[in-house]
Amino acid sequence: DWWGNNGGRIWRGNRGPSASINFVTAHDGFTLADLVSYNEKRNAANGEGDADGEDNNLSWNCGEEGPSHDGSVLRLRQRQIRNLMAALLLSHGVPMLLMGDEYGHTKGGNNNTYCHDNVLNYMNWDEALSDEFGLVRFTRCLISLRKREWVLRRTKWASERDIEWHGIQPGQPDWSETSRLVAYTQNNYRGGGLYVAYNTSHLPVVVTLPRWGGLIWQQLVDTSRPAPCDVLVPDERLSEEEAAAGRAVSSMWTGCHMYPMMPYSCIVLEAVPEAEVPLAFPTVKAQEFTPLNIKSVEPAEDDLAPPKPVPKQSLF
Fold first, then answer.
1. Helix %, strand %, coil % for the chain, to 5?
2. 3-state SS, residue 166
3. Packing angle of the helix pair 135-148, 71-89 (nearest 10 deg)
4. I want to staple 269 with a disulfide (CB 3.0 to 4.6 A). Which of 13, 129, 195, 202 is the partner?
5. Distance (Å, whole) CA 196 – CA 88
6. Per residue in 94-145, pLDDT tens?
């Protein structure tokens, strides 16, 4: 990138990516949970006749306005929150995270809560500590990944040597207005790297992965999977054996240099030496693993059916 790394950098004030503050939500506007739950603001409690607050919120309610008991809507909202969180924490620059977004704090659609000294603006520590939906764990794991991978914390703008863009096929990005897929790889120059892709369509897609000699792609993040399998990192909620089993399932696809992406999903894959990938599934006792919040999810419906139209300005 001549503009960022060479003579043109002067036009950017000689500043690198760390001079940029990135955010999806802030204290003004919807919380992240409300961004995927409301198309319209709900500011009547502010005492201004619902005339205050921004009307253009760039939000999408995922098919139903406000609180929902529809399992397909709730699953999609959880996926969208993770997609947006991933976009924030995987971007170059300094991420700014709104308090409460890490556990799904809602203000009931109120996007201008300056006048409230109550639960609308309070941190709900009980929800954060219980982490019923696994959002805190997801956020924590992405922050850990950001700290581990220096390519996510660049001090210089990435050049064509550092990043390669892809579409359904490697090296063939589709920049047309109808495209709903963006993918890229970042080489860490330490024998590995990351593959990141976003499928913003209501339809699934199978992407072909780039071939890096002697390496194979291994799943780290897949927002379409239920927690705690959305991030295959061993911790207090996912054992080494369970994480290895999840990676083994994915390796049936990545071993053929492919990966299936569900609608409205994000994946992060890591390039690892092929010799490190097991050829057999590890043994996991079935009773040891229970997806988070399974009790609140209704029987699955056809998630592939197109939901209500998405506003053009919506990111996901």
1. 30, 15, 55
2. strand
3. 20
4. 195
5. 13
6. 999 999 999 999 999 999 999 999 999 999 999 999 999 999 999 999 999 9
